[in-house]
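hey so i finaly got around to running the thing on p-aminobenzoate N-oxygenase AurF from Actinoallomurus oryzae. pasting the sequence first so u can double check i didnt mess up the copy paste, my clipboard has been acting weird all day
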Amino acid sequence: MRFQATAAFVPLVRDTIRDHARDEGRHHAFFAALFDQLWYQLDSGLKARVGRCLPELIRACLWPQTAPVRTSLRLAGLSAPVVERVIEASYPAEEVLIRMRRACRHSLRLFEGAGVLDVPGAREAFAENGLLTPGGSADPHEDAAS
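ok and heres what it spat out for the 3d tokens, dont ask me to read them lol
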């Protein structure tokens, strides 16, 4: 399918993006309500385990999946060392971490407000997975200040 740049195309894209943003807002509202219900029903031992597991789950969902890119670059004829340089240049770790913190900022605020970061080992697990700013904050706006 090919789209022509017409006057109708720009509103179509804008409307699609607006609809997607609304859906994301609904998903987060549902998740926040569900999380509150679940979190407050957990005993302290299970809260500690969940608090330590959440950061790895978030990171697994948000970290770029570079295997398909590597495969495509290799199929295009690039050597393995060149592919690695392209991946490193395209996905610089510090930039990926900043984008990841921004992407999960609402969830981090939810977790912080619910006390997830206060359970034993949770704050450390979030920090180890790069979800807290270098200063230890869950606020991604502090990335800009550092």
